[in-house]
Each structure stands twice: as C-alpha cells, then as structure tokens.
Amino acid sequence: MKKIYFDVLDSTNSYLKDNYEKYENEDVIIANIQTKGRGRFDRKWVSNNDICLSILFKGNNFNHSIISSVAILKTLNDLNIECSIKWPNDIYVNMKKISGVLIETIYESNEKKCDIVGIGLNMNSNEITNSIGILDNVSVDKEYVIDILLNNYRSILSKSMEYIKKIYTNNFLLKNRIVEYNNKNYIVLGITDDFKIILKNDNEILKLSSNEVSLKL
Ligand code: BTN
After folding, report:
1. What pTM did the predictor assign?
2. Span 54-87, pLDDT tens digits
3. 171 Cβ contact list (under 8 Å, min separation 6)
4. Alpha carbon of 164 to ligand 1 centroid (Å)
C-alpha cells in the first residue's frame, strides 16, 4: 500500500472520488488536515491532528465494511487498547467512539470502478463530539499507528471471510443490546452473512442493511 501525503484536503474520500483514475489499486491518500471531512449519512467528520485516510481498491470485491472494522480493531489491540465494533463499522473504546469508516463505491455507466475506504481514527479526544482518542490511552506516534493499520489491513485481506467474521462477531458491541428503531425497541440478535443486522421484538424480526439504519447505543 503506497502512502501519498497531503497537508490539507477537503476530504480524502472526496479527493479520491475525483481523482481515482490517477492512482493505483491500494494507494492510500492521507491528509494532515481535513477541512470538510464526511461521515455516514452526510454527517460531518471533525478531526484535529487525527488520522484521516482513504484507501483505493480497484477491481476487486472484498467486503470492506467488515475488513476495515477488523483492521482497526486489531490495530488498537496491538496498541493494548481494548475496543469493540459497533455495527457496521464504528469502533468504540469505553463506550466512546474512536473511529469511523465511510465506504463509497464509484460506478460509471453501471460498471463498478472502485471502492474508496475512508478511515477516521482519532488520536485525540473531542469533548464536543464526545469521542475518545488513542493518545488518551497510550503515547504513540501518529505515523506509527498508520503503518500498523495499513499492515493489518493488508494482512486481513489475505485471510478467509470465516476468520474475519469470527473476529468481528467476537467483538460485536451491540449483541443482545436493546436498540431503538422507528420508535420501537428491539433486541439485537447478530448479523447475517450478508452483513445485515438482525433485530427482534415480540412482533417481528427485521434484517436491516447499514445504509437503511443508524442505531444509537
Ligand atoms: C462515520 O463514522 O460516519 C464515518 C467517518 C469517516 C471519516 C473518514 S476521515 C477520512 C475519510 N475522509 C472523509 O471525508 N471521511 C472519511
């Protein structure tokens, strides 16, 4: 994975969306400062000396939602930070968010061109967003964390889906929790093979995909 650095970008995902043709499979765009970071569901992503990067994947069909979560989880575990995955791909430490992933797929005339996997991993906490950072837990250099993260990503790409799913489900924060969806309470049973979340109450069982729902803890 080749690292390409920018001092300032609006968003590493937006930049790659506009410029993916110039780059190779598995190139990584890293911005020191992001002025218009984006999250899922058109939310803002605020960062301050945190890790903001996007990895370009051309012409393959990996499930990056599950792979990215496991790569981030492993990276934090390598730094001796305990964490859990909140479906689909948020990472939490002590019930506070430390990382989020925005995956965007580019199509041209119905043909898939590439996946852009944007990872925001906090080095610092932020009181306004109530998030936590790596530096709240260990003293470590940002570049070192990026290298571990990319090595983990690369190594997980070569593992079987069965192995990756096992790590994901073993660290799945929402399991057996009560969550609210459409003003009703459900218990979370788990995730399906195609990565939908399974919710159950007395009346129904729902299987929802990650672009349909955002669940609060
Ligand atoms: C979320 O939790 O909603 C996803 C946040 C993803 C943020 C990262 S930071 C690098 C990349 N560039 C962006 O604009 N967003 C992603």
Report:
1. 0.94
2. 999 998 789 999 999 999 999 999 999 999 999 9
3. 73, 83, 84, 85
4. 22
* 107 membership: H or E segment, kind and range: strand 96-108
According to DSSP H, which parts of 8-96 are helical? 12-19, 64-78
DSSP secondary structure letter of residue 181: E
Q: Which of 68, 86, 84 is nearest to 210 (CA)?
A: 86
Alpha-carbon distance values, 124 to 50, 112, 121, 132 (Å):
7, 36, 9, 6
Nearest CA to ligand 1 atom 15: 38
Burial of residue 165 (number of CB atoms within 10 Å: 0-12, 13-18, 19+): middle
Q: Which two tokens stand for residue 31?
A: 């911005």
- pLDDT tens track for 10-28: 999 999 999 999 999 999 9
> Is ligand 1 within 6 A of the CB of residue 68?
no
